[in-house]
């Protein structure tokens, strides 16, 4: 059993958004939220609320079944065609979460006798999907194509070989070295799958993710993501060839045996993708302001690791130190949520900051001042 500790007080903190702003109300205190995942700043957008209301008026609140039986509506078909179009693929499939998308896709593609290769920092839903699939799981060093090459060589040539990486790593904000990974995969006849959870709407000039980030010089075989971060709804997605999507429809167990996405969430997600497509300035704002934030924090002496994206870790030290720093930040008016072991290695606990399109330049300046002031309070000058 996990030991109860007062340091965990920053976890499970209930908060209420303050309409149309990046501020939240936490137990009566107005705080600037700097750890939210709603990258595109669309969570309170009235256009999404209108899409939700229209969907509920027609379809009610539930999908009433799995997609293969009574669960498919025109809303699901619309969402899947929007995902396919935006991610530049012929076909797509919507799952009930990003977690289910990873578990379902990996399990449908690999089984006993096959090999999956995962980056050491891949998301837990990838790791769980690999373990449940029954395939042999091999980890390679983070963002190290040469180590992947050695691992693939050692594994031999039997069965499916599937390499899975995050496009943007959720705890560190660094990007996968896609061109080198593609080269290694091609040399070994391996498939390459990316999880775009923190990339869709965030990297690439128009937010199309890792292929656009590398100027479309490389192509992945399977793209996957969530509808719960930049796209502020619920659900997960996979896009690829029509053959792949057909295979997943009947072979991905969390898709086949679990209820369809609710109509409200489906409609909100489709509308958010259309807005993302029409308003690429949201993406350029995230990229410009996160660059400014990273530079300011590094200049102020923070360890921000290898971040080059909207996710900026402020690496603090022990779990207790990160919890304490988060509490001090709240006293200075900002929310930076701590990420501790086992999500990150011992001694590398951090506040995981995410810059969004809802943060104006003034909000970012306020946050920089607060994080610096809180750090100075924690370690007084001269000590
Ligand atoms: C990289 C990555 N993949 C998948 C998921 C799971 O997505 P969802 O929350 O939609 O289940 C997450 C969520 O934290 C994530 O960060």
From TrEMBL:
- Which segments constitute the Aminotransferase class I/classII large domain? 37-371
For the keyword Transferase, the answer is: yes
Q: Which cofactor is recorded for it? A: pyridoxal 5'-phosphate
Q: Name one GO molecular function term.
A: 8-amino-7-oxononanoate synthase activity
Give the catalytic activity.
Answer: 6-carboxyhexanoyl-[ACP] + L-alanine + H(+) = (8S)-8-amino-7-oxononanoate + holo-[ACP] + CO2
Keyword Cytoplasm among UniProt keywords: no
The UniProt keywords, alphabetically, are: Transferase
| Gene3D superfamilies linked | Aspartate Aminotransferase, domain 1, Type I PLP-dependent aspartate aminotransferase-like (Major domain)
The lineage's top-level taxon is: Bacteria
InterPro entries recorded: Aminotransferase_I/II_large, AON_synthase_class-II, PyrdxlP-dep_Trfase, PyrdxlP-dep_Trfase_major, PyrdxlP-dep_Trfase_small
Pfam families on file = Aminotran_1_2 (PF00155)
Its EC number(s): 2.3.1.47
Give the organism's phylogenetic lineage: Bacteria, Bacillati, Actinomycetota, Actinomycetes, Micrococcales
Q: What is this protein called?
A: 8-amino-7-oxononanoate synthase
């Amino acid at each position: 059993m996990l030991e109860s500790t007062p340091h965990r007080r920053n976890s499970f903190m209930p908060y209420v958004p303050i309409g149309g702003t990046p501020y939240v109300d936490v137990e009566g205190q107005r705080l600037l939220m700097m750890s939210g995942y709603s990258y595109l700043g669309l969570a309170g957008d009235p256009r999404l609320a209108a899409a939700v209301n229209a969907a509920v008026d027609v379809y009610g609140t539930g999908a009433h079944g799995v997609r293969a039986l009574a669960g498919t509506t025109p809303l699901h078909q619309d969402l899947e065609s929007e995902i396919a179009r935006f991610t530049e693929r012929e076909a797509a499939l919507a799952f009930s979460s990003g977690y289910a998308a990873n578990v379902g896709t990996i399990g449908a593609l690999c089984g006993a006798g096959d090999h999956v290769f995962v980056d050491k920092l891949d998301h837990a839903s990838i790791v769980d999907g690999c373990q449940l699939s029954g395939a042999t799981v091999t980890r390679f060093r983070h963002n190290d194509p040469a180590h992947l090459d050695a691992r693939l060589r050692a594994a031999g040539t039997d069965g499916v070989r599937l390499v899975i990486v995050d496009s943007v790593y959720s705890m560190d904000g660094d990007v996968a070295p896609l061109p080198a990974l593609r080269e290694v995969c091609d040399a070994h006849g391996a498939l390459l799958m990316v999880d775009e959870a923190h990339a869709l709407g965030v990297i690439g000039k128009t937010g199309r993710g890792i292929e656009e980030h590398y100027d479309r010089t490389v192509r992945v075989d399977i793209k996957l993501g969530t509808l719960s971060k930049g796209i502020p709804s619920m659900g997960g997605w996979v896009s690829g060839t029509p053959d792949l999507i057909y295979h997943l429809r009947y072979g991905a167990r969390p898709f086949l045996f679990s209820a369809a996405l609710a109509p409200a969430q489906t409609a909100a997600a489709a509308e958010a993708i259309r807005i993302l497509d029409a308003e690429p300035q949201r993406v350029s704002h995230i990229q410009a302001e996160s660059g400014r934030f990273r530079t300011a924090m590094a200049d102020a002496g923070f360890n921000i690791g290898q971040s080059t994206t909207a996710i900026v870790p402020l690496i603090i030290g022990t779990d207790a130190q990160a919890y304490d720093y988060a509490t001090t930040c709240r006293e200075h008016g900002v929310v930076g949520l701590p990420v501790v072991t086992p999500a990150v290695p011992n001694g590398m606990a951090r506040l995981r900051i995410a810059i969004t399109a809802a943060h104006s330049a003034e909000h970012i300046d306020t946050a920089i001042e607060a994080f610096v002031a809180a750090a100075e309070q924690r370690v007084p000058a001269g000590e």
